Amino acid sequence: MLRFEAVGLRYERSGVRTDASAGPEVLHDISFHLRPGAFRWLMGPSGAGKTSLLRLLYLAVRPTRGRLTLMGTDVATAPRRALPVLRRRIGVVFQDFRLLPHLSAFDNVALPLRIAGRPEGQIRADVGELLRWVGLSQHLDTRPAELSGGEQQRVAIARSVITRPALLLADEPTGNLDDGQAERLMQLFKEMNRIGTTVIVATHNEMLVERHPAPTLHIANGRLAASDGRDDGWVS
Amino acid sequence: MISLRPSGFDELGLRRALSDRMLPVLVGAMTFLAALAMAGWFGTAALARHWQQGAGASLTVQVPQATDPAASGGQTRLAAVLALLTGTPGVASAHALSDQELADLLKPWLGQGADRLAIPIPAVIAVRLTGTASDLAPLAHRLDDAAPGTLVEDHDRWIGRLAVLVRSLQACAGLALLLVAGVAASVIAVATRAGLSTRREAIEIVHGLGATDAYIAGRFAARATLLAAAGAAGGALVALPVLLALARLAAPFVGQPAGTAGDTLQDALGALPVALWLALPCLPVSAGAIGFATAHSAVRRWLRRLP
Ligand SMILES: Nc1ncnc2c1ncn2[C@@H]1O[C@H](COP(=O)(O)OP(=O)(O)OP(=O)(O)O)[C@@H](O)[C@H]1O
Ligand SMILES: [Mg+2]
């Protein structure tokens, strides 16, 4: 499914100076691999590089060194035009949601399907059902600004799974949810994982991890500590 | 069953980013200028064609003191020149203008009483040639021998100069069209780039969800095409009455009597050359095409900065 081989990431510094130059490396020598259907927690202190690692996986940045293979594609050398198809097989819950403010909750969730060119009839049925499942059937036509933080997060979660992605990445997905909603979310992620989706969830929520024990990737200062547990499944 | 994306679905928020005011108005103004340039092109072409027909293979011969006796023989100078002309191979006809015809010819310059003026007016002979004029110098010499002071005027030379003038005017009109198209393309490119920077976040999100460059560029291009075509249609409509007025003014010069054109709507509409009627609807189409191509390439170039 995915394989990191000595991957390093350096963000381009931009801003004050007009010419972009290389900033400090934020990820160093990341090496690990996951089989399809694996589940991983991703944990580490703030600023350790969790989001950066996920950004590599959802193709928002490319590795500056090393080799990253994602669903059979070498991400560092693949041509740009090969990436959109990969992105459509990846669902992402962003730390800051990244919903489109001028679209209703329904249209935000429908967006990945429309980009993929799915038939509108199927879209209406799937999106309606999923939004009901996450408890937003009253808010189909509401814009994100008129939703609470937790409601926005649930819209973002619905958008990430609506395409039944092969890889699901979630960055702090329970930050705005109460315990009940967080449990419901874990149910959804586990269900996705059960039907074959590879799932990586970055979180600070240790209670949640304790309640749902699974192999964990520990990251600190941009380096991966040895991950506990060798198997890809749930720790029973 | 495939149903397409709902037509009102504006995921990039372009309805506000590429607003329906500035761009159409600017493109409309460009189209107005383009319509004038096109009218100039077709107008000069029509005038040139008309004059060329009228003065194709013909000469004018002026004989001063026409009634004086000729240098040799007992006839008048006019009769001697006429006899010489009709005997010349290549001359289809030679016709001395009557006093009335001469007066008509001079009326625009000298007024009604031209024939009563006390200035000597030369006799004028209109000569039609069977082909285009070859070398006229020998003929001019022989005529001058028979009646000294006789002038031969070759219309081909004037037609030639006129053709050069028409070609220059048409080149200017063509250049104006190109310039207008270039400025319109720049306006659309600037508007597109402004739209790109205000919608940057939405574009990044849509890009991150797996939209191809073609998808995003297509959304921008569709919007730019719509706005440019609508603006151009407006500009062409505004130009129409101006063109009709110009066509009415030009009617007497292309052989239509001044009074008749423009009295009824049908006459007014008929005053424009057919070619212009065909070319006017091309303006919104071309503006739309320019809008599409410009926005598409501007967005694609911009998208290369995203991974
Ligand atoms: N776009 C960027 N440009 C430059 N540096 C960045 C950028 N994003 C993150 N960084 C830097 O990379 C390092 C890792 O950041 P990252 O966002 O991956 O941390 P994180 O583990 O997700 O933290 P948190 O738990 O607070 O979300 C930080 O030092 C940060 O300053
Ligand atoms: Mg983070």
Summarize the structure.
The complex is a heterodimer of chains A (236) and B (307). Chain A has 236 residues and is of the alpha/beta class.
Written description of the protein model:
The complex is a heterodimer of chains A (236) and B (307). By secondary structure, chain A is an alpha/beta fold. Chain A has helices at 50-57, 83-87, 105-115, 120-133, 149-161, 179-194, 206-211; strands at 2-13, 21-34, 39-43, 65-70, 73-74, 90-93, 167-171, 198-202, 216-220, 223-228. Chain A has one domain: Rossmann fold, CATH 3.40.50. Chain A is built from 7 helices and 10 strands. In chain A, the strands form 2 sheets. In chain A, strands 6-7-8-3-9-10 form a 6-stranded mixed beta sheet, with helices on both faces. A 4-stranded antiparallel beta sheet of chain A has the order 2-1-4-5, with helices on one face. In chain A, β9 (216-220) and β10 (223-228) form a beta hairpin. Chain A is globular. Chain B folds into 2 domains: 14-53 and 159-303, no CATH class; 65-149, no CATH class. Chain B contains 11 helices and 4 strands. Chain B has helices spanning 14-17, 22-54, 77-86, 99-110, 137-146, 155-198, 200-208, 213-250, 265-270, 274-279, 282-303, and strands at 58-63, 91-96, 123-129, 151-154. The radius of gyration of chain B is 31 Å and the shape is elongated. Chain B starts with 13 loop residues before the first helix and ends with a helix. In chain B, 33% of the residues are buried. Chains A and B meet through α2 and α3 of A and α7 of B. The structure holds adenosine-5'-triphosphate and magnesium ion. Adenosine-5'-triphosphate binds next to β2 and α1 of chain A. The site of adenosine-5'-triphosphate has 12 residues of chain A, from β2 and α1.
